[in-house]
Predict the 3D structure of the following.
Amino acid sequence: MVPANPTAGAITILSRIRSARLNPYIVSARPGSARGMTFEWFGYWTPWLNRNSFLLQDEGNQLNPGFKVEQIKSEDIEFHFEDVTEDAIKIHENTDATVVMVNQPWNQGFSLDSRFIKSNDPRSMSSLFYAFLELAKHLQK
């Protein structure tokens, strides 16, 4: 799994967050059976991230979007980056977090009324960098 490339801008953003001495949570709905591969992948691309910041399932072989909701609520996460529309809806409906959408081909045309940030820049496709820029603009208001 390590050869899989990160989303455009992800390493840049995580590096800047590291420089600011922030420790973001990494929340995933991946099954517990993928936990080892997840740590291997992040360890390869971002070895500086603290493993305690990863909120991953411990067991099971199924994706569990509800796990994301539980973790976002329990850690009182204010902003969550997402690219899956169904997960964004569940997070929006069941937490107080603002969803920052990472544009992907499968989520075009998707929007929520409130607590939702999404770039309209045509260069933002598959780019965590542009999603982060939209969050920065939102925070400056």
Remarks:
- The chain is about 40% helix and 10% strand.
- The domain at 10-140 is CATH 3.40.50.1000 (Rossmann fold).
